[in-house]
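Methods — Computational structure assignment.
A single polypeptide chain was analysed. Its primary sequence is given first, followed by the predicted tertiary structure written as structure tokens.
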Amino acid sequence: MKILRAPFWHLALLIGLLGSILAACGGQGDSSQPTVRLGYFPNLTHAAAVVGVAQGLFTKALGPNVKLQTTTFNAGPALIEALLARSLDIGYVGPNPAINGYTQSKGAALRIIAGASSGGALFVVRPAANIQSAKDLANKKLASPQLGGTQDVALRYYLQQNGLKTADKGGNVQIVPTDNANIVTLFKQGKIDGAWVPEPWATKLISEAGGKVFVDERSLWPNGKFTTTVIVVRKEFQDQHPDLVKKFLQGHVDSVQYIHDHQTEALNTVNSEIKRITGSSTPQSELQQAAANVDITYDPVTSTLIQSADRAYALGFLKSKPDLAGIYSLQALNDVLSSRGLAKVSGP
């Protein structure tokens, strides 16, 4: 397993081109050993992916004749670049990068096939920065996991709604996009004043670096529900291998149910995997606290996606308001849920 980070997104394009050549030569297209190339983040909000890989639930669902190849990312834009470059087939990603990938390809590249988590994102600040209200964010240095990522959009939209501008827009609030583990280091060193991050990194800032919660993002959404992570599939892969997509979703539902039924074991798995991938572990007490902020689910909470798109548009990440009518493809998920006597999820 490898970590692909945003500054090297151009490598994804090269990998994608090589993948296309190999497919033409019988590599990816070899029916005797089909491959599902999966991307995800080592975050608690991606627990379904982390647990599904580590516990072998995806491998079991896909069957012995299918190879599962995994790549981990720090944030969504890099994953979407890899998907557009055809070096990934399925990915766990935030709603904003998914929207960007859909609009960038004019609806041709990807579909959202399931949800993975709701909630689990917080804006944490250093007490020494003396941030008591939104106006105190002026002249501060803040961090997000990656430019254009879901938490980055949430942070910038919050600033915009409170009459503040970022430095790149002529304002006085500086945002430093960097990976989650480095955000913790910078926070401890006092080099940033706050960060909008997913769990368990938010709780690490609180427990290990003395941070305080300034905004729990759930407070900004109706009923405290908003889509944090969705599953996207490369449309070409979905058209060519609908059976593999459905089997993968069986593994995803298995993983979500495993997490709900075996919370302690699941948290231990997530913790050990995050440590293995990033080199940073989280005390069990912290992880349990972080888990209380996240709802692991296969429901994509579709009603909140349009609002995410509107916010990205208001920030200039989208040139025009997108038509997202075709972004969801939930039939396979609902087939899996129906076969198990579970309630179907609703579309937009």
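Note: The domain at 3-118+226-339 is CATH 3.40.190.10 (D-Maltodextrin-Binding Protein; domain 2).
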